[in-house]
């Protein structure tokens, strides 16, 4: 229905990427009938702006992280749902073309990863791809039928060097991490990514900063209030799997409550429960390694340098200023930087 997708960028320099400063994003209301994420993100924007230069923690956060917030990815679905008198049916979940946006991203095929730890639940995308490539050209020629909202978010995700993201949903109380999809006919319950431990760290950061989520005893029960996506239920064409496979961004899906469309009088309690967790999750960008890659002779910053962590079959790449960010759990790692035409 041609409604715009609005994004608010909150930073001391909102119009530029500052070299060495990580970028994060929140997306809400992907399903139009799941309204809590939309409302919490609108309040979160207000909270960050009002408290900037008044509260030291917020000021440091805004000065050192570029924060992108899209309150609603499915404005058509939300407008439809808003007009309904009964919300239990959830007819606003889909977009105007009656498509579930979280099933419309390019689908991945997986294969098992042969690893030294013999964890046979770790899988990697089967197709021959490199997430350090620029996929903008492929995006314009992709064969799959992509909805305009999905195509727009894919383009947005590819042109900005996002490090960390979260997609806010409703219907349960849990932090869900990749992969949502699995090997066809797999007997394994979980579909672990190579960064499974890091994703668990990120999910727990949100869950334990929430007053109830970590207890894991809401409408659906989860240990520590977190779950591997496929271990809960399998999704093909989901956004968080695509983001991990095709960008340098690590994204999880956060379910904010059992009631997808609560009464307006209950919204303040949802905001109170999630305000601290939204802040705590953003600060996870401090975990891991970060740095710059330069040509040793010319001192020119190098973009597109593949940053490989030995033992983890997933890479990130440097941005145009040569800066890179690799989220990791605490530990000792062997890191390699690779680029065509250069010695590793």
Could you explain how this protein is built, in words?
The protein is of the alpha/beta class. Helices cover 26% and strands 19% of the residues. The longest helix has 16 residues, at 36-51. The radius of gyration is 20 Å and the shape is globular. The strands form four sheets. The protein has a seven-stranded mixed β-sheet, with helices on both faces. The protein has a three-stranded antiparallel β-sheet with strand order 12-11-14, with no helix packed on it. It has two domains: 8-287, Aminopeptidase, CATH 3.40.630.10; 291-338, Sandwich (Immunoglobulin-like). The protein contains nine helices and 14 strands.
Annotation keywords:
14 strands; 26% helix; Immunoglobulin-like; 2 domains; 344 residues; three-stranded antiparallel sheet; Aminopeptidase; alpha/beta
Count of extended strands: 14
Shape: globular
Strand order of the largest sheet: 1-3-2-6-9-7-8
Overall average residue pLDDT: 92
Helix content: 25-40%
Order of helices and strands: EEHHEHEEHHEEHEHHEHEEEEE
- CATH homology-level superfamily of the largest domain: Zn peptidases
**Biggest sheet details:** 7 strands, mixed
**Percentage of β-strand residues:** 15-25%
Number of structurally distinct domains: 2
Q: N- to C-terminal separation?
A: 50 Å
Q: Helix/strand/pairing class, anyone? A: alpha/beta
Question: How many helical elements?
Answer: 9
Poorly predicted ranges: none
CATH class of the largest domain, named Alpha Beta
- Quaternary structure state of the chains depicted: single chain
Q: Rg from C-alpha positions?
A: 20 Å
Could you name the CATH topology of the largest domain? Aminopeptidase
Can you name the CATH architecture of the largest domain? 3-Layer(aba) Sandwich
